[in-house]
Amino acid sequence: MSEFDLIRSYFANLGPCRLDVGLGVGDDCALLDVPEGRSLAVSMDTLVAGTHFFSDCDPAAIGYKSLAVGLSDLAAMGAEPAWSTLALTLPSPDPVWIREFSAGYARLSNAYGIRLVGGDTTRGPLSVTVQVHGFVPSGSAVRRCGARSGDLVFVSGTLGDAGLALRHLLAGEAVEPDLRRRLEYPTPRVELGRHLLGLATAMIDISDGLAADLSHILAASRVGAELDLARLPLSPQVAEAVAASDDWALPLASGDDYELCFCLPPERAIQARELARELGCPVCQIGVIRPGSGLECRLADGSPLMLDRLGYDHFR
Ligand code: ADP
Ligand code: MG
């Protein structure tokens, strides 16, 4: 199968048709229209075989997750997803692998109304780069720099599930299907993010671990925070692992959660909880923004927890 047959078969008609796509896959460039009054939110992520996923990972999961991580970034700004582009580097043009990969990618594209509008296909060690494009009303994106002393700190979903699944896989142990799904098929919190526009003062998606990612909010906002560890939302499996070995790095620093962490003043908390209930997306208040700097984690008895590393860092 030639490069062009492959693109035509699996990528030329991926995701729903959109009126804002003048021209999609097939020419030298895509031609796209950003609606008036909106800013274009753009983010790019690369997933490398052996670093971000096992080389023998289900290709549908790789396709799904390579788009999910970008959607999580759009969610964290409050943006509405619109388009994606895909740079695919493959060791060989295996049509079965590509069909499954594109099916995983298409599943998420269709779920969020995203059209694949272009990309690049090359031969080499397996790696996937996805750029996502979304819209946000001009001037109203939720950034990392808006947290203020007294704001409450919230997180969506549960923390540490993907980290626990990865730990089991690395140890060659069996992984429960629901835990494995959290690693391979994370749910980007797109609806929650969009609805937090005008409510959240600062927001970030948790890709490297809560401690590291919340610390980015604190640095950008020039504030500190106190976390109450007893409040962290944990699945029964992660709660059990933490209870067994006091391993707080699992929910705080293992990464790949793709939940949202956001701050808002206490008077907006009721509205946020209401919103979460309507969307069917659990949120949980886990701490408070304080003057000063840095993250302080308190155990149930009030004593401080010292973390030796905040989160995943490719270059450390
Ligand atoms: P050019 O050589 O002009 O850069 P290419 O041959 O790389 O064009 O690509 C031809 C068309 O197919 C372009 O519209 C490009 O955006 C699209 N394309 C190539 N690879 C992919 C891919 N993996 N996913 C989506 N579109 C792709
Ligand atoms: Mg090209």
Write up this protein.
Catalyzes the ATP-dependent phosphorylation of thiamine-monophosphate (TMP) to form thiamine-pyrophosphate (TPP), the active form of vitamin B1. Its EC number is 2.7.4.16. It comes from Imhoffiella purpurea. By secondary structure, the protein is an alpha+beta fold. Helix content is 34%, strand content 26%. It is built from ten helices and 13 strands. Helix 2 (59-77) runs parallel beside helix 3 (95-112) and helix 4 crosses helix 5. The longest helix is centred in the N-terminal third of the chain and has 19 residues, at 59-77. It is globular and about 65 Å long. Adenosine-5'-diphosphate binds next to strand 4 and strand 5.
SSE map:
Blueprint: H1 3-10, E1 21-23, E2 31-32, E3 38-48, H2 59-77, E4 80-90, H3 95-112, E5 115-123, E6 127-137, E7 152-156, H4 161-170, H5 177-184, H6 190-195, E8 202-206, H7 210-221, E9 224-228, H8 236-245, H9 249-253, E10 259-264, H10 269-279, E11 283-290, E12 294-298, E13 304-305
Parallel strand pairs: 4-5, 9-12
Antiparallel strand pairs: 1-2, 3-6, 4-6, 7-10, 7-11, 8-10, 9-11, 12-13
The structure holds adenosine-5'-diphosphate (ADP) and magnesium ion (MG).
